[in-house]
Amino acid sequence: MNEKPRYHGLSVFGPFLFIGLGIVLLLQQLGMIQWSIWDITFRFWPLLVIAVGLDILVARRSFLGAVAGLVILIALLLGGIYLMGPGPTRGTVISSEKVSYPLEGASSAEYDLSSGAGKIQIGPLPAASANVIEGTLGQTVSGSVTAESKLTNGKAIVSIQSNWPRAYVFSRGDEFLWNLSLARKIPLDVRLNMGAGEIIANLADLGPTAVDVKIGVGHLSLVLPSGGDLSVTISIGVGAAEISVPAGASISVECTTGIGTCNLPNGSGFWNQSYTSPGYDAAKFHLKIAISMGVGEASVTQ
Question: Sign of dihedral through CA atoms 176, 230, 239, 112?
């Protein structure tokens, strides 16, 4: 008895991922859209779930099913990009407000900075400044930012949070920039949260004792200081992390990725990688870095 050969259909997930990425990059190169790749990924991640569902439901059953699934996904991607519009015009300022809080004799500070999307840029205040934080907070017309500072038991606690409308993922929200400077005279605990976007933090001239960074989709550029004990925790869903450590600092790094690469001072590798600098245990100060990456690449240079 002859059995009818079974069709082993092609997956639509892989082709959609590469075709979709190619379409986005092409439109960016042609200047037709200005959205960053991280913002687009943040908005269109449900399409990846749909792609997997179509792949399981129809694509593997027949050739026509695979073609139909791919066409549907590309149509959804192009329709979504059309509804998003071309994106913010480069070089324009949407809206911004200044923020400045005095140190008020605080002996330490804690910062909790949380943004739904956009860019956070951090650096040191001038040495003569009597403030705990100052800078500008860019925001969208449809969103809002709340900021406050309070003194508790000699510690200045600063909280800045962005409040995005629920419809942000499906709207034409504009990305924005927070440009902030922190106090350099006292020990600092810094917590940074970003839904989708970029964080650039230069802490080389500051005195952090703990740094906690969480990014859903995006990129982290972090410059760390030397001369004190410091614990750094980094968690990124999809994206990249670049961490710069001073030469000669005693460091211990633990890096894990779901799909991606860890580039450490002792080499590169996939999934779980670790590195401890020579003489770490006997050093006066210790810098501990823990990196967790879902999809992407983490790099630690010294």
Answer: negative
